Amino acid sequence: MKKPGTSACPCGSRLAYGVCCGPLHDGVAAPDAAALMRSRYSAYVLANEAYLLATWHASTRPPQLDPDTAATPKWLGLTVRRHLATGPDTASVEFAARYRVHGRGHRLHEFSRFVREAGRWYYVDGENPAAAAKSPRLATGPTRPANE
Questions:
Q1: For 77-98, what is the HEC assignment?
Q2: What is the pLDDT of residues 45-96, one digit of tens each?
Q3: Contact 115, 122 (CB under 8 A)
Q4: In which region does residue 77 sit, left (phi positive, over 0), alpha (psi from -120 to 50) or beta (all else)?
Q5: Would you call 42 helix, strand, or coil by DSSP?
Q6: Are the C-beta atoms of 107 and 97 separated by less than 8 Å?
């Protein structure tokens, strides 16, 4: 049996979970928005709701995650396409995450906004790229998954 934290990190970094997203899930601050994005993806894979809520900015954080367990996704992979510092304490990350629900493949493609407060990064919101192209900034709420 493998020691805890020695298996591959769900975020796809090719690092062990114990040196990649594991420390962030245990309370270490993410060094940048891209690392927070990866750790949040891993938290979705691992169903770590407490971490997801703790790293969601208070201004946009829901009281709880969607309790619909009948449609629980099986996460298949993450691609971080772009990480852009938009200011000293703001950043955006473009990513695509693949998953299956009831055997059907889907892809979530999002431009996510992040803010750093008191040395910690938080997810603010996200927008799908088609909507973002029409908007001067990434401003509206979460995106909806698109079928592959």
A1: EEEEEEEEEEECCEEEEEEEEE
A2: 999 999 999 999 999 999 988 766 667 899 999 999 999 999 999 999 999 9
A3: yes
A4: left
A5: helix
A6: yes
